[in-house]
Each structure stands twice: as structure tokens, then as C-alpha cells.
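FAQ: What does a ligand-bound record look like?

Like this one, built around adenosine-5'-diphosphate:
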Amino acid sequence: MERLRHTDIKYLRGIGPRRAELLDKSFGIKTYYDMLYHFPTHYVDRTTIRRIAEFEGEDMPAVQVRGRFVSFNMLGEGAKMRLVGLFSDKSGTMEIVWFQRAKAMRDIYRTHTDYTVFGKPTLFNGRWSMVHPEIDPPSTPLAQGGFRGVYPLTEQLRNKGFTSRTFAGASAEILAGAQVIAETLPPHIVSRYALLDLRTALCAIHNPPTMAVLDRARLRLKFEELFYLQLDIQRYARRRSSTTQGFRFPRIGQFFNNFYSQFLPFPLTGAQKRVIKEIRADMGTGRQMNRLLQGDVGSGKTLVALLTMLIALDNGFQACLMAPTEILATQHYETIREMVAPMGVNVRLLTGSTRKKERDEIDAQLRDGSLHILIGTHAVIEDRVKFHNLGYVVIDEQHRFGVAQRARLWTKNVIAPHVLVMTATPIPRTLAMTVYGDLDVSVIDELPPGRKPVQTLLRYDENRLATYQGIARQLKMGRQVYIVYPLIKENEKLDLRSLEEGYENICEIYRDYRVAYVHGKLKPEEKDYQMSIFASGEAQILVSTTVIEVGVNVPNATTMLIENAERFGLSQLHQLRGRVGRGEGQSYCILMTKRKIAKDTRKRLELMTATTNGFEIAEADMQMRGPGDIEGTMQSGIPFDLHIANLATDGQIVQMARDAACEVLDADPDLTNPANAVLVRQLSLLNSRIRDWSKIS
Ligand code: ADP
Ligand code: MG
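The answer part, i.e. the structure of the complex:
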């Protein structure tokens, strides 16, 4: 393996310096090793021939067709020139299109000769076509290769004649020439989990003899990636929890007890109580707490934050609550101040728009310790903000914050404060295990009593009138309404409803009501003003973009209309919907969309109408879109790139890898056993990417 890592890909037969450069530019393939680990994204059954007449569906996989070219036509001119071949099997015809090297292609292929073409059929102007398919010459035996890998390719590579076959061939050549492929997992793990050895797995992943062997090869390679990921996370977590000193909060005192007995606005739910106990136990250990609190929208996380902040106060420490937006920080501030000001707790709000005079006051109080709870946006982690003794930090809706921002909070103390990260985006368990692998997790899995689940309805443009009438009925009952748009301004390129246009429209339709509006481009004062007239009920309708997504709490708002709902991801829709259903009244969420939407989109929207369970939605969202889409920050939370494993779909293997990693570390915490030498070596190879963020959570 060492040799493979150091042999330049340009030395491989048929590559040479120019193509090597292109491989590097396209996929970072520099060495034999890189080539071996450039895997196919999927496989096609080259033993089956499909009939053109049977093509169907919007998103067909790549298929193999056998037939002949009937004619060739050069179309277009200059840069737009393309070659179109009419290709026919006995059942029907399709077009085969070359945009690149059109002239050359015309000379390669001829009519009245059998070819096997392989590519992804798309329907264009009512006719099936394939763009730049792979074409096997007539002499190629049909079932050769069985299953063939399809590799990611760039246009440039294609132009230089690269095909999936080039990649499969290159890997085969490297493997054939390599005398040893050193095993990268210790033998005890390979045998314990009955894994394929590395050479066999690599051969099979590029050139699978059968589906069964391919499955085993994938399992082996996915397991390996996830195993090292888990080993790294677990080793780090264990080291941290045994060494990182934290404040000990042994006391429950005046603040907590007073509030609990006299000011608690309602009895806690069972889940809130349990979570508070978990946090309290952590705070008492003398080790620093790093806990993730997951709780669906409306599950009452704020109260948990407050009660646990009071514990910090009881032990003589300051607490800080950080929210991702000014609106949300302000709302937290108002709710919390109202609840605890009567007990003499000093709460202040710090955001980007806090005036200088007030800032100075806050700074002074922070330093002399008379300020108990600081609530704010990321303004609270600016360097100038210095606490007297910060003991506890709550971060609301963490996915909005970069990991780097969390790191800065840490550096405010010599001893790190306890950290509670609250998120309303339920994170599927297997993803949490990886991204937050070293956080402890608490879950609020119960909503406060008396909530009626929001009714979610899918409506089309032709139902618009009836929908507006339904909204009018809610308004007449004294309820408030959100209307959400995907865009602020009209955009020629996108056929979407915009807030500006919508605002005028809505004012026109509901003349008797006042309409407020918020969007991301408003000045903070304007935004606050608009929000405040909606929150107070002076305005009955709030027209907005997704800025209201997080946290906003107006219990009297019972209806939300989401325009172009097809444009939003499931988790985002769920967040938006969480703004209604916060009070006594039955609430509605109307997903408005065009009648014609893709099948997947319809499936997504129908799921929204079927469930209000955030975990179910998050799981489905991840299955449909893959974890990469969920949040940029989460992805960057993963220490190594995954080549083959998929956190969304390989949940079982994640679990298996985690168990294996824990077993290894239980038996050999410092990995000093010679049988584990390979683990140490692999980890340090993988870890050559610096993890300076790792200290923080
Ligand atoms: P989230 O978890 O989305 O941050 P909030 O903390 O904003 O939820 O709480 C949502 C609403 O539920 C608030 O109006 C809050 O006052 C109310 N609430 C919280 N806990 C309880 C409870 N135990 N019983 C009744 N209502 C509660
Ligand atoms: Mg909240």
C-alpha cells in the first residue's frame, strides 16, 4: 500500500503526464492509491439488454440497448454543433447525441452494424435520447463483465476519451501489478465481522463478478471507513471526558427553587423533567458537560434552558444563551426576563444593534458579575465580551452557527463552561452518532399537553380562491396568519411567487386587516418593528420569507400558507410549520404548489401532510436527499471524507462500526496492543487533516 500511495498515476499504462494532470484536476487523483479509491457511484447490469419501447419514467437509470444506427445528422453550427444518430432496436428508436468531438464520432460509428450502447435515457421533446453513451463495438461479447461500475466523470475527462471502462481497467491493472495489498484492518476485526480481505474487496468494487460479491465488497469498504471514523470519534471522546475539567455545580439553590415553586408558568412535561435531571447530573460531575438537546419545535426547550441556567446561577456562575437571529434572541430575552425579573435575576440582551451606551453597561456588569444571564446573537462571542465567571452556555438552534463560533466561546475561560446545544432539527440517530459522536444527547420526545397537531393540507393553484376564503374565516375568528414566500423579489429566471408581489396582493385581498412583512434584507430595526406588530396582534397577517423559520412564538397564529412549497426541503417545511399549532386553536399549514410537480416532490409534500413527527421527517429527508444536503456545518463536522459509506443510508453499518470501535477501545484504550498497530497507523494517516475544531464539542 505504501508503494501505491507514492506511485504517480502518470506511470500507469495509457495515462501519461497530460491525462494524469487532468485526473488530478478533476478528482484529485494523483497516485495509484487514489485511483484505487476512486469508486464507481453505481453499477449496471451489463447482462441485461433493455428494449427502447419499454423505457419509462422521469429518472431512468443507465441501461444497455442493442441495435443499429439508422442515420447520422450533423446539426447546429460552431459551438452548438452536434451529431445526432438515430438508433434503433427492434422495438423502437432513440436519438444518440454527441456535443463533443461530433466530427470524430461521425467517422467512428457506421450504420447497419450492431452496437451495444449504454447510457441514461432521457425524454426530450417526446423522444428518448442518450447523450454521450458508452458504445461497445460489435465484437464485444454480450455478458462480459457482468456488472459494470459507473464512475463519476467530468466533461473534460470524457473529451480525452475517458469512460467508466477506463477507470475499471486502470484499477484492475494496478491491482494486478501490486504484489501486496496490505490489510488495513486488524485480522481480529476482519474475522470477527466476516469481512472480505482488502484486495478482494478492491477488485470486486471495480470489477464485480457477481452482485453478491459486490455487496460484500461494499460492506467491507464502508465498514472500514465508518469504523475508523467511529474509532477516531470515540477515542477522542474518551480522552476528553477523562481529562477535560469542568465546573462542579453541586447546589440547587434559591434561584432554581424559587422559580420552580413560584414562577413556573405551567407544570413541566415528563420529558422536560427528565432532561433537566440529565443536565443537572452532568453539571455535578466536575467534568465539562457537552450535551445536545433535541426537541421538536414547540416542545419547550426554552424552559429547560432557563431552569438549567438557574442552576448555574445558584452555584455562583453566569450563564449565556446564544440564538441564531436577532428576532429569536429578542424573543428569548423577553420571555425569560418576564419570568425571572421578579426574582431579581439580572438578564440583558446583546445583539449587533445594541447601542453603545447600553453595551458599555452590559460589559461592565458582565465583568463585575452583577449580570446573571446574557442573551444574544453571536455578538456575545465577540472578543470584547468578557465575563466575570461564565459557567454555562446554551446555544439555541445550533445548526445556524458555524463550529468555529462555538470554538470561540470555549476560549473565554480557562476552564470550559458547560455547553448545551439545543436543536429543533431532529437529527437522525446515526447521523448524530457521527457528527455529534462525542456529545451526549438528550431528547424531549413529548409536546406540552393540550396541543392539537397541525393539520397540513396540500393545495394547488386552482384551489387558491377557496384557500383565501379559508384564511379569511380564520382572520374573522380573530386568528393570525403567516404567509411564506420563497423569494423576496420577482426573478425572471425563476417562476416563483415573490414576497413583494405577494404583499401587494394580500393587502388587496384582506383590506380590513393589517399586514406586516419581514425578510432577510430588512434593516434590523424595521424587522423588529414588523415582527413586534405581528406579535402584539396589531397586524393580523405576516408576509415573510423563511426568516421566521426559527423560534418565533405567536400562539394566536393558527394558519400558515407556504407558497411554492415544492421549493423547500422537508426539514425546512417542518421548521416553518412549527410556527403554528402553538396555542389552543386548531392550526393549519397549507402547502401551495403547482399541479405539475415531480414524483419525488409530491412524495415529500405528502409526507408532510401525513406526519408531524420531526424525527420521522428528518429521517425521510435524509433518505431522500442524503446527509450532505442537511447542513453544511454538519458535513464539516465529519473529520474524514467518506468515499463510499453514506451516513444517510448506511445506518446499520454505522452502528456496527461504532460497536466494533467501542469494543476495541474497551479492551485496549490506548491502542498499545501490537495487534492494533495497524489501527494507530491508519488513524494517523487519516488524521493528517488537522482537526483544530475538535476541542470544542
Ligand atoms: P421550542 O422547543 O420550540 O423552543 P418553546 O420553548 O418556544 O419551544 O415552547 C413552545 C411553547 O410551549 C411556549 O409558548 C411555551 O411557553 C410553551 N410550553 C413550554 N413548556 C410547557 C409546558 N410544560 N406546558 C405547557 N406549555 C409549555
Ligand atoms: Mg426555541
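Follow-up question: can I read anything off the structure? Yes, for example: Confidence is low (pLDDT under 50) at residues 401-405, 629-636, 689-697.
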